[in-house]
Design a protein that fits this description.
Distance between the termini: 11 Å
Radius of gyration: 21 Å
Largest sheet: 10 strands, mixed
Bound molecules: inosinic acid
Number of strands: 20
Length: 426
Amino acid sequence: MPVLAIVGGQWGDEGKGKVVDQMSENADIVVRFSGGDNAGHTVINRLGEFKLHLVPAGIFSDVSCVIGNGVVINPAVLISEIAMLNKAGVNTAKLAISDRAHLVMPYHILLDELEEKSRAGKALGTTKRGIGPAFADKTNRLGIRVCDLLDKADFKERLAMALEAKNTLFTKIYGVEPLSLDEIYNQYCEYADYLTPFIKNTVSLLDEALEQGKKVIMEGAQGALLDPDFGTYPYGTSSSPLTAGGCLGSGIAPNHIESVLGIFKAYCTRVGNGPMPTELMDATGQKIRDIAHEYGTTTGRPRRIGWFDAVAARFSCRINGMTALAITRLDVLDSMESLKICTAYELNGKKIDYFPASVAELERCKPVYEEFSGWGMPITHVRRFEDLPLQAQTFVKRIGELAGCEVYMACCGPSREQVIHLKPLF
Ligand code: IMP
């Protein structure tokens, strides 16, 4: 029953795509379990550079790929992603889409935009992909699921009901034009025809694979600090990026999970609004942003940069049940003279070692740092931990100690090969 969950430990963009692509070589199935096309998983391999929003990053290996029930799917984005992959020579025949997954509809995207606008100075900074409204409809029992596309008459009835409620909002509250039922219906019928061969009962598919002793990777999207329960609420996303979210978003029971690999950058980034205690608003932050080209994969927005936050990382490890860590983008720090890790916060004159629930408190937290000397040389060619400069070894080990979970992998470049394995996994 070997299931490996690969989850983001920070605010997303930790490099999950690269790690999943690499680990897929040893797997049979990769299942994406949360979020939607707000995610942007970058993979660089022998076929080129890819930015995936919905298709699991395992698609480049000879594995089955599943978009689980916990993902909200914008069919237009999915279809163009499949076409892009096929054009690059990637076989997508082994892609399956859960019949239980919810659909992102045009009114979700419009609503995301209008809601953000109405929040004015308090905007969440969403990706405007309709993710929040789609998950809200799921919870409200107004959602339309992939399986609904298979019965067009039933689909039209559900769509009419959902759209009526949304058009009332658009015209009466937001003062914008209503959306056309026929246009959406016809468009989604076309999507349905294209996607029908991919639509499967993925719960059974995964269950049978596990029965046969196949290896499954659960691929997370976003990161723990964006979780609706444990993240910086309300500045977070609308589905759970945690390991537990992996069970709910795939139908794989928790007792199948053998290991949980938490992905962390060697520093922090955040895109969108909300507190970030170690944020660097200075030249150092800009230097890291420039070196690492830290701009959102989905939105192109500049990412906020900060030092590694071990208080948040400890919290992330605990709520995810992480059994191993991967530290990505270590090479970005090659030219830094000195480095910092936040080991505690100072809140109202007191030192605390926990991640507060209240964003107002978190905004007031001042980071307490431990300082390290940099290594001042390129490490992109290094493949063995013992060949890393001693300062880099110390930095990586200290992250593991402070986070409370051992580091198994360190990445020192964007390509599949630029990985140092400290311990075998999976
Ligand atoms: P939403 O998921 O589009 O509703 O956006 C809510 C918050 O989550 C915003 O701060 C986004 O920037 C952030 N977010 C959503 N998806 C990602 C991601 O894949 N990486 C990083 N941040 C994300």
